[in-house]
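Format notes (please read before filing issues)

Several people have asked whether sequences and structure tokens are stored in separate files. They are not. Every record keeps both together, in the order shown below: the sequence lines, then the token lines. Line labels are part of the format and must not be stripped during preprocessing.
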Amino acid sequence: MDGFCWSSVALLTIAWSWLASPPVVAYIGPGAGLSAIGALVAVVVGIVVALLGFVWYPIKRLMRRLRPAAPGEDPSEGSKA
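Then the structure lines:
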């Protein structure tokens, strides 16, 4: 078994099962289709908002640190609001 390549066996098995399977005819009703689209949109928006929040928070801290402090304001305290 020297030089036997399991990845080629796996690839051939997947290709054979894909080519040998009959075509599938499926119907997705309007309710299920809209639900699936809505769930996909919600997941994508959630990921985008999470990434924006992950990037925005350090930028906000940097902008606050670079902003000159107003007279009478202690820069080490930060915002109380």
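For reference, the curators noted about this record: The two ends are 70 Å apart (CA to CA). The mean pLDDT is 84.
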